Every structure is written in C-alpha cells, then in structure tokens.
Amino acid sequence: MSNVEPNPQETVCAAGEPVRELVKGHEVALGGPRAMTVTRTLPAVGRRMVGAWCFVDHYGPETARMSVPPHPHTGLQTVTWLVAGEVLHRDSVGSIQQVRPGELNLMTAGRGISHAEESPETELHGVQLWVALPEGSRQVAPHFEHHGDLPVVRGPGHESTVVIGSFGGATSPATAYTPLVGVEVSLDGEAELPIRPEFEHAALTLNGSPSVDGEELPVGPLLYLGLGRSSLRVSGRGRLLLIGGVPFEEEIVMWWNFVGRTHEEIEAFRKEWTEGALFGEVADFDGDPLRAPALPTARLKPRGRVR
Questions:
Q1: SUPFAM superfamilies per the record (predicted)?
Q2: Strand partners, 81
Q3: What is the rounded average pLDDT of the residues 230-247?
Q4: Is residue 306 one of the residues assigned to a domain?
Q5: Would 273 be classed as within a structural domain?
Q6: Where does residue 85 fall: left (phi above 0), alpha (psi -120 to 50 degrees), or beta otherwise?
Q7: Most-buried pick from 26, 185, 210, 257 (CB within 10 A)?
Q8: Rg, Å, the chain Cα set
Q9: Is 262 contained in some domain?
Q10: What span, in angstroms and rounded, lies between the C-alpha atoms of 287 and 75?
C-alpha cells in the first residue's frame, strides 16, 4: 500500500516505563477521490514508531474497491493483514499473490521494489503496516513472502494469531530484521496476554469494543503502552491488533513511500523512481504508476522515534 497524500510531510521518527498514550489517527483517501478512506495512526505527531513499526493504516469495514497503482518502496517491509475481503498483490520481482483473512502478505523492499494492490468491489476490512529496516539490513535484495498457515495461541478468553515474531511460545515463519511482534487477538472474555518487558507495545481495536489495561479502546485510535510490561490485561469481545518491538534507536528519514537516512538518499530515490529503472516494473496492472510528489522546500532531516 502507498502513502498517496499529494503533499506528504517529512515524518519525524525515548521510551521508559509503562504508559497509556492514546494516539489519534487522521483520515487519508487511498487511491483517489472515489476510493476508500483509511485511518492512519502511525506516524503521528509526537509518536512516530512502536519498535520498528513506523506506519499503521486501518481501513473498513466498508464496501469498496481498492486500486493502488504501482509505486516504489525502500528501506522497509509492508505487512498486509485482512479481517474481511481479499487483495491482490503484484510486485516488480514477479510476485502475484491474493491475500485473505488470516493470511499474511509480507514484502521486504530492501534496496528498492515497486508493487500494486487491487481488489474487486467488496467488503474490505484490514490493516497495512510498515516496518523500518535497520542499517545492516536495509540494502537486502527485495523479496516477497506469503504465509497462509500462521501459528495460533489459545488461552482463557482469547485466540491469538502470531502474524510476525514470537508470542505465547509460538513463532511466526515471517522474516523479521529486528526483534518485534505482531499479533491479532480475538477476544471472548478476560485474558492476560504474555508480552516482553523489553518491548514497547501498542494496541489497535479492529472491531468490537474491548477493554485494554482496564479501559475501553474504541475502533480508531492506537493505544501506546510503553515498555516494562510482562503481561497485558484485556477483556470483552472483539479483535485487537497488538504490535511491539525493541525501541528502534536509529534516526531515519521517512518521506512518501521511502525510508532512508539522509535528504540526499530520499532525493535520489525520488529521482530514480521518476527517471530510472531501480524499482523495476509491475506487470499486468491496468493503469499508470503513481507519480512522485514534489519534495518539500525544507531539507529533510533524520529524526528519532518521537518529536
């Protein structure tokens, strides 16, 4: 999925004890004025990352047609997770893969890839997330993974699918380049979720109105929970997405669909998408690729995880 904002701003990406910080999202039109609207909770003013997670879009449920034209990525992984519907992924390394609820599409952009995502008009509900790659891995060869059989952890009050990382003694087969976790938690009662105290975590309600850490978490905002918790108390009925990871200490420049380290890198990525061949071509997409927006007049600066 792309950041399709016509005038994207530079994204500025300290942590300590457990906290309860509600991060409100903002609405973004995805794929044009007639397309669906997503709620973007990361990056946000003040809170830029949770572990290596640097981008969270939640969309639906609504009857809509997704059509995101070919666009580039560098320095990140895209995570596509659906609650309802289906989305077809195509990319410039030749991958063509439908993803459905309970399955994971994971694309590692590395040094550069382009992709497109489409669906017929149908009920769509899901999330798209990005994971920033650390310095030692951000030049890896671009590649794609599909995982249709993910581990499920069952306990009192919950059934949890391990999307990436490890949770409750189970480990996802998805490739991760930093210590992190992503879990969809289906709640039916009260549960005490085991989490790692060295990870910072955040929770996003996908449906229902569950309680997280003693307070109701409605659909919409992301609840940042900080570090230092060995368990998380949740209750009610509904679905939650729990993300977390070791705090990402590197400073990054995140602009449009690129994650880099300097203004010059971002400038070079944009020029390459406009004029070069690094990102390859997405075959069989009926339409033109996305045009890169103009760079801002101010110089892009590498930043930490919070402003």
A1: RmlC-like cupins
A2: 104, 127
A3: 98
A4: no
A5: no
A6: left
A7: 257
A8: 18
A9: no
A10: 26
